[in-house]
Amino acid sequence: MNPFVSVIMAAYNAEKHISASIESVLNQSYANFELLIVNDGSTDKTQSIVEKFCKRDSRIKLINNYKNFFVIKSRNIGIEKAKGKYIAILDSDDLALPNRLEKQIKFLENNSEVFLIGSSAHIIDETNKIIYDFNATTGYYELKKAIHKNNLIYHSSIMFRNEKVLYREKMIYSEDYDLILRLFSEGKKIQNLPDILISYRQTVGSLSKTKERLIQWLFINKARKFYHERILTGKDNYNNFDPNSLINLLDINYPIDQNDLLDAMKICLYRKDRIHLKFLLKKYHKNYSVSIRFILYNLLSKNKYIFALISTIYSKL
């Protein structure tokens, strides 16, 4: 008998928390599932841990990537191999509450017009202590109205119909948000259940105010731009997008689209990141002629007090 739902778990060097994540799936009140764990070239004990679970429960399938492909491709590999009517995502450091699969399957079975469902979540720390609860926006129209401003769906909570919808692999750092925005622009109905069905782990190594965080914001901004392009024209410019131009943002010699560079400056202003703004101004001046936006950002960067004031005002808009 084929599994009714396929749980996809991408894992890279996940030895610290993956056992608890697997156990949370095995402890589900709904039993007709397969758990596809895609080991993305881990160099720690992830593979051996998963192999022990495979011997214990035949519903667990291990897929080993021969090298680290990154989480997006790993999830796609899992989706392509999934046999279930539904696909559920759970990251290798998060936990599914015992009734997660049962409640989401029941909802999707009773609401055929809904393509994807998420949920509310406990936000936990490294020790499983609850930091706070995320109370999800539930209604489709409320989500659709706000989704272009904020991703209101915790990705480890989603379950969707298995129509072999894949993540776009160039959307590094924002593949989950890009997927949700694509589904909305295609007219797919998306909702959140109010129930808390997962525990989402905030780790010490989470992205913060660093180069990586700035680049992540650029990818989020790109996902939003593509969304607006699709709404206006029915298609976006993804095929011509070079993700390396964003990844190498802080390489002064690596080319980047002028508008993307200006967007990066705007993000620096929003994030009160005057140091990176100054660098980006140098990169802009080296590659492009002076524009009004360049002059504005350049003036703001000159005085740290004015910059802090304008950044504070802008971040509250």
From TrEMBL:
<protein>
    <submittedName>
        <fullName>Glycosyl transferase family 2</fullName>
    </submittedName>
</protein>
<keyword id="KW-0808">Transferase</keyword>
<dbReference type="InterPro" id="IPR029044">
    <property type="entry name" value="Nucleotide-diphossugar_trans"/>
</dbReference>
<dbReference type="GO" id="GO:0016758">
    <property type="term" value="F:hexosyltransferase activity"/>
</dbReference>
<dbReference type="Pfam" id="PF00535">
    <property type="entry name" value="Glycos_transf_2"/>
</dbReference>
<feature type="domain" description="Glycosyltransferase 2-like">
    <location>
        <begin position="6"/>
        <end position="166"/>
    </location>
</feature>
<dbReference type="InterPro" id="IPR001173">
    <property type="entry name" value="Glyco_trans_2-like"/>
</dbReference>
